[in-house]
Specification:
single chain, alpha+beta, Beta Polymerase, domain 2, 4 helices, globular
Length: about 120
């Protein structure tokens, strides 16, 4: 199960990188969390970019894995979005909201598998 989550996490990271997401991190939290295995955290430079990233991620995951998001929370104009794929939860942030929430620090006991600046 974790192997498929890792594959999904890498697919999401690759999509974010191709679509100009910034400061992308893939964190393994399998040993520290009961509701998911991996977090992907990414910054978007604008509301428009965040909306495009969220749409592209969902489209790519649907195509590659026949998997729909379990849920989507937040809106680009709020400065954050969360897309839940079960084994992988994606957090998209504006720079300001990312600095405010500091998820990387909150989940620092997890293992950073990938960091693309």
């Amino acid at each position: 199960m974790a192997e498929s989550g890792l594959s999904l996490g890498h697919k999401i990271v690759n999509t974010l990188e191709e679509k100009k997401g910034e400061n992308i991190i893939l964190i393994d939290i399998t040993e520290h969390c009961s509701f998911t295995d991996y977090f992907v955290i990414c910054s978007a430079i604008s509301e428009r970019t965040m909306k495009a990233l969220a749409n592209d991620i969902q489209k790519e995951v649907k195509t590659a894995y026949s998997l729909n998001a379990w849920g989507v929370e937040g809106k680009p104009d709020d400065g954050w979005m969360l897309i839940d794929f079960g084994e992988v939860v994606v957090h998209l942030f504006s720079a300001e909201q990312r600095d405010y929430y500091r998820l990387e620090e909150l989940w620092q006991e997890g293992t950073v598998l990938l960091h693309i600046r």
